[in-house]
Amino acid sequence: MAERFQVISLSHKLAPVEVRERLAMSEAEIKDFYLKLKDVFGLHEAMVLSTCNRTEIYYRSEENLSNSLISLLLAFKSNI
């Protein structure tokens, strides 16, 4: 099976500001979360983008990891 480019996105179009604020990440948090992505899922190609209006995770994988990545993001943000 071939790897596919995939994305998880939470934006001002999809979520209220309270939710976006809880999931927004600083530069240091993005780096830590990226390392988690590599450690937990073995992702070699991933990018995390977080601004005041959106949080997005871009990754390349054979399988759809969306639900697992969302779970990891929620656990990561609840531990900060």
- Helical segment tally? 3
Catalogue the unreliable spans. none
Mean pLDDT: 93
How far the N terminus sits from the C terminus, by CA atoms, comes to 36 Å
Strand content: 25-35%
- Helical proportion, percent range: 40-55%
Rg calculated over all Cα atoms: 12 Å
Order of helices and strands: EHHEEH
In total, how many beta strands?
Answer: 3
Biggest sheet, spatial arrangement of strands: 1-3-2
Secondary structural class: alpha+beta
- State the oligomer: single chain
What gross morphology would you assign? globular
Could you please describe the fold and organization of this structure?
The structure is a single chain. The protein is α+β, with helices and mostly antiparallel strands and 80 residues long. The protein has 3 helices and 3 strands, in the order βααββα. The protein has helices spanning 17-23, 27-41, 66-78; strands at 4-11, 46-50, 54-61. The protein is globular. The model has no long low-confidence stretch (mean pLDDT 93).
